């Protein structure tokens, strides 16, 4: 499978925020994966990102020319989980460890 990677000039606010949050929490940088699904005569594309051992999937599927959007979608989901903006996220302290008992 081949695809064109995003250019360095692409606007990626969610990916940037996620990377910054990982740095702040002293955890490994996010690792993105592009996934595809053949649907009839077309292929749909999406993204997953692994953060602190947890895989987060983008909410939507995209046309191949919008891979940056797929990564942004997954980054937003992961950032909401990491920062506690989602009720199902763990309580995370600054050092990346759970603060719950």
From TrEMBL:
Coiled coil: none annotated. Residues 83-101 have a biased composition (Low complexity). Signal peptide: none annotated. It comes from the Eukaryota. SUPFAM superfamilies: dsRNA-binding domain-like. Residues 81-101 are annotated as: Disordered. This is DRBM domain-containing protein. It comes from Cercophora scortea.
């Amino acid at each position: 499978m081949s695809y064109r990677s995003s250019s360095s000039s692409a606007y990626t606010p969610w990916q940037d925020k996620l990377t910054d949050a990982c740095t702040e929490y002293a955890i490994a940088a996010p690792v993105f994966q592009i996934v595809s699904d053949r649907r009839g005569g077309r292929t749909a594309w999406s993204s997953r990102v692994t953060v602190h051992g947890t895989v987060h999937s983008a909410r939507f599927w995209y046309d191949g020319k919008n891979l940056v959007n797929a990564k942004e979608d997954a980054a937003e989901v992961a950032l909401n989980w990491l920062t506690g903006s989602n009720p199902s996220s763990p309580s995370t302290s600054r050092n990346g460890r759970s603060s719950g008992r």
